[in-house]
Each structure stands twice: as structure tokens, then as C-alpha cells.
Amino acid sequence: MQFTDLGLAPEILRALEAQGYRHPTPIQAQAIPAVLSGRDVMACAQTGTGKTAGFTLPILQRLQTCKPASGASKPTTGRPPRVLILAPTRELAAQVEESVRTYGAHLQQRSLVIFGGVGMNPQIAALQRGVDILVATPGRLLDHARQGTVDLSRIEILVLDEADRMLDMGFIHDIRRVLALLPAKRQNLLYSATFSDDIRKLAHSFLHDPEYVESERRNSASELVQQTVYKVDRERKRDLLIELIRTHNWPQVLIFTRTKWG
């Protein structure tokens, strides 16, 4: 299967071609038609499977082909967002918004990312200029909602990305507050690496007859990620790590440890 088989607009296909992408990953091949159909989607996707494109591509397609709901602001300035994507961290939110801009490079949709730890005034100014796709962390989005600087009344599509991480980070109450601010009629997409009981409980509270998408065996590792195990004594872990970094000349390394002290 190729992206040309999925009914995406020529402008989106051009952007994909520029990135060297021709064939969708399994999660993309299943999720894109499901999102395009307008149904709610509950997707289980691991890191490295291409899940972000699995929802950004069909969302861009839907915005391209569907006119805004009646009563929306002017098409060029001051328009409220039609899509809201919630992400657990500023880093992930920034990555998602970058994907939106990359795949929507030849489209007219505007996107914006907002998160905490930075000033609100530039975000307020950008919101006032108008945006179609808003990517946000829950806390900062609620800050804007409390100040009346974001209009969520025209949201047509909601995405909860990495929902399991959001629950682990204690965002459940913020998520419910955000849900209460959105129109009752909308398309909902939930993406999670695992489907725990808590995730299923959350999903059942706002998804309507969702289509279930799972590209791999549950909780399995992505086939696109190479994994290697080194058996080493605890005392020699640091020496091994240093040697690996030097030998492979890795410019960026993410290290997980069991404790802050470690």
C-alpha cells in the first residue's frame, strides 16, 4: 500500500514525497481511513510506529475538504481552532505541531503550540490572529481558558495523544475540565501505548462507538526500533555506557535510570 491509495489531497502527498515517505506504516494504514470516516478512534500505538502522522494526515485532509461550522469567524483572521490536540509534555506537543506544519506545508491551515514555562502574551497574540489546529499541554490550555484567551467552542476534532502518560502524570482532572469546555458534537481520537483499565475507563467516558486500531501485539515493541541487550555487572554499567557512546560516536543519547540519585 502507498499513501496515494488513502485518498489524501495532492498537497499532502507532495509534503510526504518531500520527506521521502511513500508507504504508510501499519498504524497509519489502519488509522488514516478510520479518522477520515469521521468515527471516533481508539488506537494502541507504540513510539516509533508513525502514530503522529496517523492522526495529523487525516486531520489535515478533513480540514481541507470540510468547511468550518456555521457561525465561525472570518476565514483569514481571528478564527477559533477547529482541532485540539492534547499532549502530556511540551516536548511532545512541539513535535506534534512540527509534524502538522511539515505535512501541511502546502495547505492554508494555521497551527499553534502552547505550553507552560514560557510567557503567555505571544501565545495570546497568536490565538487572536486565528488558528485551525491547536496543540497544547492541559495545564497551559486551562490557563488560557480561565483568562478567556482561547475559544474552544468550535472544536470539531479532539486528540488525546499518549493518553497513558497523561494519566501517569496526574492530568486526569485537567483532561476532564478540558472536555467540559468542548462542544458535545465532535470527533474524538485517543492514542495510547497501553490500554490499561484506567485508559479504558477514560475512553468510555467520552468516545462514541469508537473504531479500535492496533497495529501490533499489545505492549510489544515497535519493529522499527532496534533493541540490544548487554549483560554487565552493576559496577561496570557506567564504563560500558561511556564506551558505547565513544565507540558509536552517538551525538544524542537518552538514558533511563531507576532513581534520581542514579
List the main descriptive attributes of the protein structure presented here.
alpha/beta, 262 residues, 40% helix, seven-stranded parallel β-sheet, 10 helices, single chain
Characterise the protein shown here.
It is a single chain. The protein has ten helices and seven strands. By secondary structure, the chain is an alpha/beta fold. The protein has a seven-stranded parallel beta sheet with strand order 3-4-2-5-6-1-7, with helices on both faces. Helix 2 (26-36) runs parallel beside helix 3 (51-65), helix 3 crosses helix 4 and helix 6 crosses helix 8. The protein is globular. The termini are far apart. Mean pLDDT is 89; it is low at 71-76.
Structural class by SSE content: alpha/beta
Radius of gyration, CA atoms, in whole angstroms: 20 Å
How much of the polypeptide forms β-strand, as a percent range?
5-15%
What is the terminal separation in angstroms?
46 Å
Assembly state here?
Answer: single chain
Could you list the spans in which at least 5 consecutive residues all have pLDDT below 50? 71-76
Largest sheet, spatial ordering of strands: 3-4-2-5-6-1-7
Q: What is the total tally of β strands? A: 7
- Number of continuous helical runs: 10
Helicity range:
40-55%
Mean pLDDT across every amino acid position = 89
Largest sheet: 7 strands, parallel
Which geometry do the CA atoms define? globular
Helix/strand order, N-terminal first: HHEHEHEHEHEHHEHEH
Which secondary structure elements does this structure contain, and how are they paired or packed?
Blueprint: H1 10-18, H2 26-36, E1 41-44, H3 51-65, E2 83-86, H4 90-103, E3 111-114, H5 121-129, E4 133-136, H6 138-147, E5 157-160, H7 163-168, H8 172-180, E6 187-192, H9 197-206, E7 211-214, H10 237-248
Parallel strand pairs: 1-6, 1-7, 2-4, 2-5, 3-4, 5-6
Helix pairs in contact: 2-3, 3-4, 6-8
